[in-house]
Amino acid sequence: MNGEARSLELKAAWTWVPVEDSGEQVTFPVGASDSLRARWTRPALYRWVIVSGNKVQAVHIGEAEDLAGRIYQYSNPGAGNQAAARIKKAFTDHLFRGDEIRLEVCQLQSFIVDGRAVDDAGLRDAALRRALEHLITYEARLSGTRILT
């Protein structure tokens, strides 16, 4: 109703899990192997972690309807994909400095919206994926992590 106050209660817990391909951590740049495509052609929240030595320098957090396709876009941004081109340039600059760029996915431990549990299958909903991406990015920024956008 108009003018009626609304509220939304959210509670989330998650962990970041390394993305592996043939038993090896996926790092940038990465080719899209058959096994990577088979495992990750699905919705996901992900982050690229830029590491120098053992210290995290920055992260890039994103969401994708098809993670395997999104991984490909970072290495091969099309002419119209300025965001992927910008991230690729930032990643390339970090690689030239000797940094490593590791890919991780978000594994939901729990995500509750107004008392209703959402599981990984709920990530098929683009609006929910984007909302969670923004909330996780906000939390990372609050913790002092440098965010690449």
Approximate helicity band: 25-40%
How many domains comprise the coordinates? 1
Distance between the termini: 37 Å
What is the β-strand count? 7
**Low-confidence residue ranges:** none
Shape: globular
The protein's oligomeric status is: single chain
User: What's the helix count?
Assistant: 4
**Integer-rounded radius of gyration:** 17 Å
What is the helix/strand order? EEEHEEHHEEH
Average pLDDT confidence is 92
Structural class of the helix and strand makeup? Answer: alpha+beta
Percent strand equals 25-35%
Report on the structure:
By secondary structure, the protein is an alpha+beta fold. It has one domain. 32% of the residues lie in helices and 32% in strands. It has four helices and seven strands. It has helices at residues 34-40, 67-75, 82-96, 126-142, and strands spanning 10-18, 20-21, 24-25, 44-52, 55-64, 100-113, 116-117. Strands 1, 4, 5, 6 and 7 form a five-stranded antiparallel sheet that branches. A hairpin with a 2-residue loop joins β2 and β3 (24-25). The protein is globular, with a radius of gyration of 17 Å. 22% of the residues are buried.
Could you give the topology of this structure?
Elements: E1 10-18, E2 20-21, E3 24-25, H1 34-40, E4 44-52, E5 55-64, H2 67-75, H3 82-96, E6 100-113, E7 116-117, H4 126-142
Antiparallel strand pairs: 1-6, 2-3, 4-5, 4-6, 6-7
